[in-house]
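Data availability (excerpt). The following record was deposited with the supplementary files.
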Amino acid sequence: MDSPGPAVARDEELRARLATGDEEALAEIYDLFAPLVYGLARRVTADAEAAGDVTQEVFVGLWERPLSFDPAKGSLRTWLATLAHRRAVDWVRRESRHRRPPPYLEREGNGHPTVEEVVVEGELAQGVRRGLHALPGPLREVLELAYYRGLTYREVAVTLGIPEGTAKSRIRSALAKLASDLEREGLST
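Predicted structure:
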């Protein structure tokens, strides 16, 4: 059988050193791949500060969980680039949720809400708050993390220590229950 190439051997050696807590291994990896990770994050986010944050998250994640990288599945370069891309996309999604204007500002016209629209928006907001407080604890918790803290379902899963599928399922169930409660109150959108 052929011996592994120099990059594969280097990746395996760096992973083994990281697993023992070797800070020099992290420094080597950072020197090798930080420009790639930062550049990719910068292209996706179009924001220098966000790209720096994503870069830090990727390398901190590697330091905290070095065995999550498996050289048998691909190169360290590819794995880090994939992590950077995913985290950058998550950042863009979170930002787009926070920057979305209220519906009455998206319509044509003068951009000012009518009295009726303001009242309806207020009633809907109160209905959502009531519905959220009426949800069982686990369902309320995932919605608060996802919608008030802006976490992705993956981040919700990590925060709560539950499987990703469970986080997605709870978010879906909570939204369906909330929509049903709002519909019953005549507040559906």
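Summary of structural features: The chain has nine helices and no strands.
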